[in-house]
Protein: Amidophosphoribosyltransferase
Organism: Anditalea andensis
Amino acid sequence: MEKLEVKNPTLILDEKICRQNLSNMAERAKKHGLKLVPHFKTHQSLLIGEWYKDYGVQEITVSSFKMAYYFKDKGFSNIHIAFPFNPLLISDLNGIQDQSISIQLVNEEVTKALATDLTKETGFFIEIDTGYGRTGVPIGKLEEIDAILREASFSHKLKFKGFYIHAGHSYYADLEGIHKIQKEIQEAFRILKAKYKSQYTELVCRSGDTPTCSIMDDFEYIDEIGPGNFVFYDITQAEIGSCSREDIAIILAAPVVDIKKGNNEILIHAGGVHLSKDVLNLNGHKNFGEVVYLNELGWEHPTAPSYLKSISQEHGTIHASAQLMDSIKIGDIIGILPIHSCMTADCMKEYKTLNGRMVDHLEGRGITG
Amino acid sequence: MEKLEVKNPTLILDEKICRQNLSNMAERAKKHGLKLVPHFKTHQSLLIGEWYKDYGVQEITVSSFKMAYYFKDKGFSNIHIAFPFNPLLISDLNGIQDQSISIQLVNEEVTKALATDLTKETGFFIEIDTGYGRTGVPIGKLEEIDAILREASFSHKLKFKGFYIHAGHSYYADLEGIHKIQKEIQEAFRILKAKYKSQYTELVCRSGDTPTCSIMDDFEYIDEIGPGNFVFYDITQAEIGSCSREDIAIILAAPVVDIKKGNNEILIHAGGVHLSKDVLNLNGHKNFGEVVYLNELGWEHPTAPSYLKSISQEHGTIHASAQLMDSIKIGDIIGILPIHSCMTADCMKEYKTLNGRMVDHLEGRGITG
C-alpha cells in the first residue's frame, strides 16, 4: 500500500473485499429467489454503484431526495427513496421526469396531500414497523394501512407497489434475536399478503436490514431484500455475526503523531470528523474503532488487538497491545476498522482504492462522476 | 423565518446571537488583559471568520493543515495549527510561503525531524497536559520539555513561542471542577514561566477551552486564550454553565415527516449525518438535541421541553411535550439545538442566516469564499 502515499486521514477501500461482499449477497439473493434492491446510503458513490451492475443489480434504494438526484443524474433508474415522504417535496417530486422513482408512505395525511397535488405517476411502498419503533405503520394497525390505501385510491397517480420493512432492531440483537426478528418480519408479510394480495396482485414484500439478509436462510413471504451496509460491513456487523472482520472493506488510514509509552497509548490524527462518534461497548470498554496493520497488499488483522479508546473532533487515542507498541513509531500510518461504515463514509466524503484511484461520494461529489 | 423556505435539513445561523458571543468573549479578554486567539475549528467559515475582525481578532487557531490552507488562502494570517505536528507534513509546511503559521509540538522525535528538514522559520508552541490525558507533555515531565527545546535549539528555523494548554476535561466538569481545572492550568503556567521565562523572555502561555474562558474570572499566569466553541455554544456548554440556551447561535431546521400520537413521538428528517452522533445523558435519558420553535424572527425556547431521544443515519425521533404535540403537524419545520455545535457544523457543511444568506464552511467550500 506504499504507493498510496497517505499523509493525512484517508478512507481506504479494498475493491476486492467490497466486490466479494456484493457477490456473496447477490448469490444469497439468487439462492433464495429474492430480488436484490440494495441500499446505497452506505457508500453513496457512483463508481461503487456501477460495480453492483456486475452482480445483476438493476434497482436501488436511497434515503433522501439529495441521494436520489445524485444517482438519477448519472444514469441510475428504479430508485426507491426509503424515507417517509416529506410533503414539502411534492413539487420536487413532480419536477423529476424519471417515473421509475418510488417513495415511501407511513401515514394518511401525506398520502392525501400527494393524491391531491401529484401530477405524475409515482409508485409507493408502505413502510411497516414490526418492533423497531423508528418509523412505519405498526403491524397491529391494519386500519392505518387501509386509510393510506383508501387515500391513494382517490388518485390515478399513486401506484401501490408493496410493503417495506427495515427491522433496524436487528443491529442491537444477537443471533437468537435476529432469528426472532426475521420470524416477525415473515409473519407480518404473511398477514399483509393474506389481506391485500387478492386486491393488489402485483404487490411485493421487501425487507431491508443487513443482519437478517446476511445471516438468515429462510425468506418465506419475502420477495425482495434491500440491505445496504453489507457493501463494506464494519465492527458492529462483525460483532452481530453478519460478517467477519476480514469482510470489512474500508479502513481509515491515520497518521501516528505521538506515542505515550508508559500508558500504551498512541495518538493518531483520526477523530469524530473522520470516523463519526459511533461507539460500541466491547469487553467492558468503549471502542471507537479497531486497529489493523497496513502492508504492501492492503492491511492485515493483528493477532493482538488494539482499539480506539477515545476520540474528539480531530484526535484519536489508541489503547495499544504490546505487539503494536513494539513496532510503531511516530510518522507511521495505522489502519482503523470503523464501528459504523455508513457514518464513516459520510464523514470522509471520498475513498482511495488500494491502487490509488480516488472514488466519489455524494458529499464530496464528482471525483469520478 | 418564513422567507428561508426550508424544505430539507438546514443549519440555521442567527448572526446576532453569534456576534453577541464574539463580543462577550472579546470583552472578557480585554477586561482580563488577554489576547484572544480564537479556535476556528467550530465554524470553519471564512465569512464568520471575518466577523471576528470587528471585535479586534488578528490571530487565529485551527486544528489541521487543511483548515490552515482554507483560511490562509483567503487572507488570514498568524494561524496556529493546534494539533501535534504530523512529521509527514514537513514538506507541506516548507511549501507554505506565509511565515506567520505556527505549529504545536509534543515530543522530541518530531522536533528533531523538523530541526533537520525545516527550510524556513516556523514558530511553535509546546502543548502541555494538565490532566485531560489526550495530548501534550504531562506537566510533571519537565525533562521532556527540555528535550524538545534542546532539539529545537539545534535549528535556527524553529522559534519557540510558548506553552499551550487545552484542558478539555472541563467539558465533563461541573462549576467546581472547572474552578479546579483553571487552578491547575494556572499552576502549570506558573511553574513553566518560573523555569523558562528567563531564557525565553518572549514566551507566552495560552489556554484553550471554552468552559474556563467563559466562566472564570482569574487568569493570572495566562497571557492568551484560544476558545472555539463559544462562537455558537451548544447544549453541552449550556449544561456545563458556559452559556444559557439563549446563547446558542445555530439550530438544525428539520422537516416533520410523521407524528405518533399515542407515543408522544415526532419523526423528523434529522439524523447522525446532520447532527453527528454526539449525545448527552440528561435527566436519565439520552438526548441528541433539544427542540426550539421557529417563528418569524428566528426561534424561541419552549416552556415545556422536548428532545431528540434517538437518531439513526437520516431519522430522528423526538420525545415531545404535550404542548408540542398539540401544535405540531406533518410538514412543519422544527428547530433542534445541537449537543455539540462543532460536530454539527462539520456534518452540515454550510449555514443559512436568518435573512437567507448562505454561509461557507470548509467542507462545503466556496459559497461566499
Chain A touches chain B through 50 residues (CB under 8 Å). The CA atoms of residues 233 and 270 of chain A lie 20 Å apart. Chain A has a mean pLDDT of 95.
